[in-house]
From TrEMBL:
It comes from the Bacteria. GO terms for molecular function: nucleotide binding. Residues 2-89 form the Gfo/Idh/MocA-like oxidoreductase N-terminal domain. SUPFAM superfamilies: Glyceraldehyde-3-phosphate dehydrogenase-like, C-terminal domain, NAD(P)-binding Rossmann-fold domains. This is Oxidoreductase domain protein. Residues 124-246 form the GFO/IDH/MocA-like oxidoreductase domain.
């Protein structure tokens, strides 16, 4: 298969690494910045183009869209116009997606929105534990996903890329990123309340903290905190069930389950994945590789991708509802 990767920043380069890890070497990259083209070409030995006119579209089997979120829709439309299946990074802007989804469905063209955490080994364990039914239904949960925005790209100023803009700000982007796997586990919430705002200087005037209360069917209540003001990167979950409790911190490398019937703790050790220099040690490449493989399997018709644009729109509706208060 031959791939066209649009956007050669941090995520575009990661997706190229994923494709290479899966044995795919026929990759063409595009980025309006010449320095990024040159870097990708040098690091990964791929072809790059300066203009779309140089691309032989008939030679491309699939498109990977790794641009800033505010450019996603124009590239999805480009892929649909050229009848190419596409994978897109996590979205945060809903406007226009419904129309693109209808075009894709009407023409039978695959759009695969990112759902990276679905492939995290600890989160896969958490889902299996809950869905086993051994501990009864979920009653409530609290989850905190915190990072420090200047740590994202230590090689460039926060103001130099999309996370510094309010609509595509770092925290606002991570809210749907986390909701995607939580909603898969709990279902869609019936009610959402939220406080959000700017609590400190993170290098840009954006809302750096979201505190969201969620009410789900079957009397499940949850609290979600997402921020880019945490000086130590954190993903931390306490999930209560009728007969047990799940405790997970992503830097512990283990999912702990308290079995209330037998009054003991059960431990699910998380496989240690590969990381790339410059990234947090807990941001393992493996889940990104598995995600790209899932996209390729969907393109080949082997198995459906675990997220759809319709589901992505539902997640963004939760974000928008939260922001309305």
């Amino acid at each position: 298969m031959k791939f066209f990767v649009v956007g050669l920043g941090s995520m575009g380069k990661r997706r190229i690494r994923c494709l290479k890890a899966l044995g795919y070497d026929e990759i063409t990259g595009y980025d309006p910045r010449k320095d990024r083209q040159d870097e990708a070409k040098q690091k990964y030995n791929i072809d790059t183009i300066d203009t779309l006119e140089e691309l032989v579209i008939d030679n491309i089997h699939a498109v990977v869209i790794s641009t800033p979120p505010d450019k996603h829709n124009q590239w999805i439309k480009w892929a649909l116009d050229n009848r190419k299946p596409c994978f897109i990074e996590a979205s945060v802007i809903k406007d226009g997606l419904e129309e693109l989804n209808q075009i894709a469905k009407g023409n039978g063209i695959l759009i695969a929105p990112s759902c990276t955490l679905t492939f995290h080994p600890a989160i896969k364990d958490i889902k299996e534990i809950v869905k086993s039914g051994c501990y009864g239904k979920i009653t409530n949960f609290s989850y905190h996903s915190g990072q420090y925005l200047p740590d994202w790209h230590t090689y460039e100023d926060v103001k130099d890329y999309y996370v510094s803009q309010r609509e595509t700000g770092g925290t606002r982007e991570i809210v749907p990123f986390e909701l995607t796997w939580l909603v898969e586990l709990m279902g869609l919430p019936t009610d959402v309340k939220c406080f959000y705002g700017e609590t400190m200087d993170v290098g840009a005037s954006i809302d750096d903290t979201y505190v969201i209360a969620l009410n789900f069917n079957d009397n499940i209540y949850g609290s979600l905190i997402v921020d880019v003001a945490s000086r130590y990167a954190t993903r931390s979950l306490i999930l209560n069930m009728e007969k047990g409790q799940i405790v997970w911190r992503w830097d512990d490398g283990v999912v702990k389950v308290y079995d209330a019937i037998n009054m003991r703790w059960v431990y699910y050790n998380t496989p240690q994945g590969e990381t790339t220099a410059g990234y947090n040690k807990n941001i393992i490449e493996d889940m990104y590789i598995d995600e790209v493989k899932s996209f390729i399997d969907a393109v080949k018709g082997v198995k459906a991708f675990p997220n759809t644009l319709h589901e992505d729109i539902q997640i963004l509706n939760i974000l928008y509802q939260a922001e309305r208060g």
